[in-house]
């Protein structure tokens, strides 16, 4: 190990100086200021997930890196907030070389699973099973420059979305957008719409998991400038018709939980919301909106480029590691096989939707 000591702490045991050093090291690395890799996210997860831990890599008593993770049965580990975290990995001072399995041994982990490992994580990338595209929107040049590009690359998308916004205003009522809303009713509506979408598409309802609902509540109350929740709401006739809850730092906004009221689907309120969010984010100093991995037509229309993220696991040759492999890797391989074959992927999506429809009866 590069440091002479690895100290394992609960997130709430991180001192203010630890958090300050974490942010300084992250800045030194020149990695994007993604809020999921800020210490405030790890501390929030620690309040709702008892297995959350942080390995502090020290050299001569000074922190040179931080590795947030969750520990489960048999020492099986996972990225902090796995399932809802869109950027994962270790925060290391530049030049620090890390042995992944040695780090897991120091943390008493038999495995460590990730599904959105950020690029540049040299110690973990060799253990990736798949490389994925994570689309982003660059806003550093301002919203006007972005819309100029959008008109050139997706002219019908922009034109049709703006036309639907005008139609929504004519047929429903005055359209109003709030970028950073403090509206508990709108947040409850968003969770309801999103839960219904998960069930309708046959996917696991994340908001049926108490820890995720609690995590969203905690982050929504956060005042940390490098990691706080932002609820954006599109209203028509003073009624929420679309909303998004995401995480932001000073310069990066992570697209997290978007949803809309299906009663207004013909107006594409979700797309109207996205355009208004991008405009407001650019005015608020956001340079990058990270749309997250996973295929979606609207992401292809909005993006300016792709980041690379990785899915996989580091597994040590111990009984707990074997248990992880048997429990996870065959299913992961099957998903990868389907995802890489568009016809099969389409059939799988239709099957999930039909399963969701039957469950909803």
From TrEMBL:
InterPro entries for the chain: Acyl_CoA_acyltransferase, BioF2-like_GNAT_dom
Domain BioF2-like acetyltransferase: start-end pairs: 158-300
Pfam family, one: Acetyltransf_6
Name of the protein this chain belongs to: BioF2-like acetyltransferase domain-containing protein
Organism of derivation: Streptomyces lomondensis
Classification lineage: Bacteria, Bacillati, Actinomycetota, Actinomycetes, Kitasatosporales
């Amino acid at each position: 190990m590069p440091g002479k000591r690895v100290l394992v702490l609960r997130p709430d045991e991180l001192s203010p100086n630890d958090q300050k050093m974490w942010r300084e090291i992250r800045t030194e690395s020149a990695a994007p200021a993604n809020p999921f890799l800020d210490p405030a996210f790890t501390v929030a997860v620690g309040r709702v997930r008892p297995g959350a831990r942080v390995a502090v890599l020290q050299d001569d008593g000074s922190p040179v890196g931080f590795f947030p993770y969750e520990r489960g049965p048999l020492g099986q580990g996972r990225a902090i907030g796995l399932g809802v975290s869109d950027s994962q990995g270790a925060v290391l001072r530049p030049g620090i070389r890390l042995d992944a399995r040695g780090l897991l041994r120091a943390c008493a982990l038999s495995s460590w699973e990730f599904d959105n490992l950020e690029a540049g994580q040299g110690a973990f990338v060799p253990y990736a099973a798949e490389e994925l595209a994570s689309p982003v929107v660059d806003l550093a040049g301002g919203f006007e420059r972005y819309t100029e590009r959008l008109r050139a690359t997706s002219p019908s998308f922009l034109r049709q979305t703006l036309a639907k916004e005008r139609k929504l205003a004519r047929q429903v009522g005055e359209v109003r957008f709030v970028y950073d809303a403090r509206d508990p009713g709108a947040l409850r509506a968003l969770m309801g719409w999103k839960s219904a979408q998960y069930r309708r598409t046959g996917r696991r309802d994340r908001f049926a998991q108490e820890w995720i609902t609690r995590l969203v509540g905690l982050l929504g109350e956060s005042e940390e400038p490098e990691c706080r929740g932002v609820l954006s709401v599109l209203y028509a006739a003073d009624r929420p018709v679309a909303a998004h809850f995401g995480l932001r730092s000073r310069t990066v906004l992570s697209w997290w939980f978007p949803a809309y009221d299906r009663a207004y689907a013909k107006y594409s309120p979700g797309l109207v919301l996205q355009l208004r969010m991008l405009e407001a984010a650019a005015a608020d100093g956001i340079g990058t909106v990270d749309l997250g991995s996973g295929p979606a037509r609207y992401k292809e229309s909005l993006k300016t480029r792709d980041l690379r993220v990785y899915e996989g696991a580091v597994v040590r040759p111990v009984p707990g590691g074997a248990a992880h492999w048997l429990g996870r890797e065959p299913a992961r391989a099957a998903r990868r096989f389907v995802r890489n074959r568009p016809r099969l992927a389409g059939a799988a999506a239709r099957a999930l939707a039909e399963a969701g429809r039957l469950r909803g009866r």
